[in-house]
Design a protein that fits this description.
homodimer; Arc Repressor Mutant, subunit A; Four Helix Bundle (Hemerythrin (Met), subunit A); 2 domains; 3-stranded antiparallel β-sheet; 65% helix; DNA-binding; transcription (chains A, B); sequence-specific DNA binding (chains A, B); AsnC-type_HTH_dom (chains A, B); DNA-binding (chains A, B)
DNA sequence: CGATATAAAATCCTATCGGATATATTATTG
DNA sequence: CAATAATATATCCGATAGGATTTTATATCG
């Protein structure tokens, strides 16, 4: 089972696209872009009119989003976007990352294929801040790549359950919805580089430590925006 | 957000029951009881006839089960129960448990309320093998209590994300579907007692170690049944 | 007898409809 | 004027019907 449920079938048989899948992606994009604000209500009928499909695929997509914790459902009331993380949830998220991701980095250093490492390097290259760009869309792009980076490391660890558990957190979604105004990407690129170097050197201990440092610094970069909540 | 999505609303307002929820529980029970075998196809129309409800709530329940990884969906083909764990997945499951549950036990020793500890003791008492009982239903009962026990410890750790990540694995479902013929409950009861004692003594180090030992022994008890797969 | 092509059945996927409930608005009353 | 009650609207929940696709069964042919 893949991380995002969008893995390709090995056989080349092309199946017609599922409408529910596109609806899922559409809603997901609206959550990422903050078009649907935290806590905002999500009306099925509105989506019917907006997307031009019937209720069935929309409800199917919303059920999946609900199971993933991205939207909430109240019986006979409707769906609504998950509220922003409070301080407590933020701490919990990084606590959990700290349990899984350094381990994943260490495993990746031992098991990752050379091709996958090359993939990692390529991706890191694309994350470099490109001089002049709209800061907001730049951070959006960075968040996307950053998510892929961490997912690749988790995938390299070879434990699909760990990879899935991390993917299900939708870390980049929640963080972006908190910090869309932020920027701070150059520091993270450096830290990513150190992680890649350790993995490339097949140094598990160094990879684990580099990931640990990266997550700690990431938390320090972001925590200022959430101090409001107790 | 609760672990199973079945938490009660704090307010006493009674909402009419959701049909989709009962359908979910019905299918879940059929998975636990192996009435739907691993990999077995799940026909929506059959469920319509069997449960006497329309397709809508059934598809809603199946979507949630799909998001939780308990059933698979193939476009234009239908739903099917998740296949049995193979050796690799079994190893991954215990690897992940080893990352999260000892940590949860240590946190529980520090943060769990006395009332919750009492709850833990009560539950452990109910898990004692009760002399004469049908071995199979005895193990079914044990699996249920065991799941609650570990969930309570995770809850006591105070990190809902860790608790949810563990709950989403549906450990007891997958293990039961592998080892429904097994029994081995008395040993686990002893190990549970040691975990409780450490938590009760507020000894985080001992609780972490006791949980670690318990998971390792649990793995050793079950691994024989999965050696077939490479 | 085996393989292929055709036909039939089962199933899923989407769309539409009616009933039930919660929410918002308005009107009434102390 | 504030608070309550009644109404109106919007929305969800569940049921049903039709179209599309896959799968299975059957028949035909080499």
């Amino acid at each position: 089972m893949g991380a995002n449920g969008q893995e390709q079938q090995g056989t080349g048989i092309k199946r017609p696209p599922r409408l529910g899948e596109e609806v899922y992606n559409a809603i997901y994009a609206q959550l990422m872009s903050l078009k649907i604000p935290p806590g905002g209500r999500i009306s099925v009928d509105n989506l019917v009119r907006e997307l031009g499909v019937s209720q069935t695929p929309i409800r199917e997509a919303l059920s999946r989003l609900e199971a993933q914790g991205l939207v909430l459902k109240t019986h006979l009331v409707g769906y609504s976007a998950a509220s922003q993380m409070d301080r407590k949830r933020f701490e919990q998220l990084y606590e959990l990352r700290m349990l899984l991701e350094p381990y994943a980095a260490a495993q990746a250093a031992q098991h990752m294929s050379d091709a996958a490492v090359a993939n990692l390097k390529r991706l890191a290259g694309e994350m470099e801040p490109t001089g002049k760009e709209d800061p907001r869309s730049a951070y959006s792009r960075f968040a996307q790549r950053d998510s892929e980076f961490h997912d690749l490391v988790a995938q390299g660890a070879g434990n699909e359950l760990v990879q899935d558990s991390l993917a299900r957190l939708h870390i980049h979604v929640h963080l972006f919805r908190l910090f869309y105004h932020s920027l701070a990407t150059s520091e993270a690129s450096i830290e990513h580089g150190e992680i890649i170097a350790a993995i490339d050197a097949r140094n598990a201990v160094a990879a684990e430590k580099a990931m640990r440092v990266h997550i700690e610094k990431s938390k320090a970069r972001f925590i200022h925006a959430v101090i409001s909540a107790d």
